[in-house]
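call fold(seq) -> tokens
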Amino acid sequence: MSAELRVSIGQHSDKGRKPLNQDFHGACVPTGTQLASKGVALALADGISSSGVSQVASGFAVRGFLDDYYCTSDAWSVKTAAHRVLAATNSWLFAQTQRSEYRFDRDRGYVCTFSAVVVKGRSAHLLHVGDTRIYRVHEQSLEQLTEDHRVHVGGGQSYLGRALGASRELEIDYRTLTLDEGDILLLATDGVYEHIEPRTAARIIHEHAGDLDHAARLIVEEAFARDSADNLSVQILRVDSLPGHSADALYQHLSGLPFPPLLQARMSFDGYRIERELHHSARSHLYLATDNDSGERVVIKTLATELQEDPGSVERFLLEEWVARRIDNAHVLKPRGQARKRGYLYVVMEYVEGHSLAQWMTDHPRPSLNAVRDIVDQIAAGLQAFHRMEMVHRDLRPPNVMVDAAGTLKIIDFGSTRVAGIMEAAAPTEASAMLATAQYAAPELFLGEEGDARSDIFSLAVIAYQLLTGRLPYGTRVAAARTRAEQSRLRYDSALSDERDIPAWVDEVLRKALHPDPYKRYAELSEFTYDLRHPGSTALGPRHTPLIERNPLLFWKVLSLLLAVLLVLALCLPRLM
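ret:
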């Protein structure tokens, strides 16, 4: 019995009689430790024909699944990793439809069907939504393993009951199969399986077992010859060898890694040499280490001992690693890969030689307006990488931004990041952690809301305001305002003063970005950064300050006087008549 999983894969796709191929397929066969920890993955998506953009959806769904699945923590099961990746993908697709002209017609939006197979160890994990199909190939027939999510309404008419990107919430089918060597799985779109007999497909696969790509092409051609008018796509996976049963212990180990011991300087740990502790907090410990193989200096992050028994905290820690792996941006801290088999649960990140923005602010108490703009632009570029992936950082503050020797800023610490589509159980420590950084958190987060891009814009604007003034726009009042009524009474403290030469229009830009109501802030980071550099921007527009903001006492006096006049008139009017 082989000690390693080996498979053969064949794939083929054709637009058929349609002008455009809206199907998309892909496969990934990793090597080394990732083959054992993640397995082999195949994915197939079929864009709905009523949509002119569904090929974008099917392409993103397949690429996103294959990329993001292999970025998830080794400690997650296949089911957990795949479901979270697909939930995030679904949220991204749905958001694109909501932002487009098709937001009121999902049949024309970013929607597709989706099926995937992950072969790990001696099992196949099947994930499915829509009407693409997964079959097990027998000697003379096909066994359908998935259920079509199609609703039939009579008269030969039907519609998709479920699809990727069709709604905000995603319900996806999942099942596992125990595999034997020689097992064959087939993935196909409706343009194929509706026009070819199961025994014909099985015969072609067995007759051309030595060239599965050719077998897939012949199946597509057969369906086309039988008058298929749709796109045609087929994937074939054959299990050539399976790891021995003794390897099952490895998979269980990878899905339940122990936490590392308390690390100390000069200690050898999992292929690293610990140099020194960098930071210690209630949530995590950071250590500077050197990789024994490459000689690279890295940062090792471990979960605080007090939180290792808390499932919510562990899940947030694992999610942080996935977030880091999904983003590739010069202004976001990068993770470091590891070819060796990992023995403990920890995160390895790049080491930035420099200091935090908080320290930079101490060293530069009066930066110029242009210096502040440059800082805001760099942080905004990093945040946009989060927002493009439908993620919100939610804990942006000076200690969570590093400045390297070249002046490049990098966002760090993704422990509070919200990933669209993934509802994490809040760890008990999160509330207290938020209180410690409350002066930078958006007001809506104190109401229990999840926050969106506007929440990060608020935090960035607080940093910009503090850089220019040395103080906070609302002092400590935001954390104390725990209801909408209390938040509506928050009053912005103008950045204008006799000590700094700050243009009035810059103050208005900050005022808008720091509005307690998220829907009265900038909707996009690009709008905020643009207005911060352009006086009289049309995006900002002239602002008339209401009397209640300029002089609340006078406002209430005038209102009381008007009410008194109306009352007198109401009493006198019947007598005059």
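Residues 552-576 form the longest helix (25 residues).
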